[in-house]
Amino acid sequence: MNTTAVGSPETGARSRTRDLLHRPLTWLIVICAGWAIARLVGVDRLPLLAGLLVPILTFTPYVAVVSVVLVVLTLAFRRWKAFGVALAVSAAFAAAVLPRAFGNAAPVTGGPVLRVLTANLRLGQANPHVLVDLVRRTHADLLSMQEFTPQAGAAFDRAGLGRLLPYKITTPLGNALGSALYARWPLRPRPMFQVDLIGLAIPHAEVDVPGGRRVEVMAVHLAHPMNPSGVGQWNRAFVLLPTGQRQGPVRILAGDFNATLDHTSLRRLIGEGYVDAAYETGSGLIPTFRQWWVPPITLDHVLADARCGVRRVKVYDLPGSDHRAVFAELRLP
To answer: In order of start, what are the domains of the chain with their CATH numbers?
Structure first.
């Protein structure tokens, strides 16, 4: 007598679901694997690929989350080969992304404390009273502002910024071109890059911090790398920005880099004598830029001389701006 085993309806439904998901799962794994390789190898540094990959790699943390979902799905549907690949891809993303949430041990330093605040004003539209109050509450010693317009300069004067940070070097320009540095102590201007070379103004100065330490600071704002012209200006700025030093003045770069830690150019710059303050304190995944059509991403950074210790980092909402302000408290060497 012949017998035929008939699976339950539930078993048949699971099988049909596995078959239905097999191709999209495979393609998603392939895409995530290519993304992980591009991020780890740093192919965005290649001129012919930079225009495409620099904007795309900005969203690497989100793809890292997708890779974890793929691990769960391939395990649930018992696609063992796909599960192995998805697990390897997820591990690669974890190695690239997760350290930002844990931080590093700060070097032991005995110098004075320096408090740095940076804020992109969104074409000068950020609420000046909120930012001035933030300077007051954080006891900021240096303030870097981007997209600093003539109208914004007047508004901050009226809001009383000069009473808290009386020294300044400003380049108030229209649209997003202008930037400014405000300080608690006298600023000595240093040569600036030509605006037509990198697209935006980057004020540059030295300041003597009480306690005997000289600090060199830049209010950084780099071009949007969203088109060939922007990518060219963005790359030129990264080449021109000064490296850190083992001796001499402490260097601090604070502002809107239009770059995340998934961009090779920013990681290369950090590796040349800086630390990213948010990364060092486990705050490297906190987003600093958000718009309705763009998932929140981390474009604003305080890069401190690697000789500094980073004591704490805090990110604050800034009404009127699509960026958030970043505050870093540093212990100088």
So the answer is: 9-101 (no CATH), 113-331 (3.60.10.10)
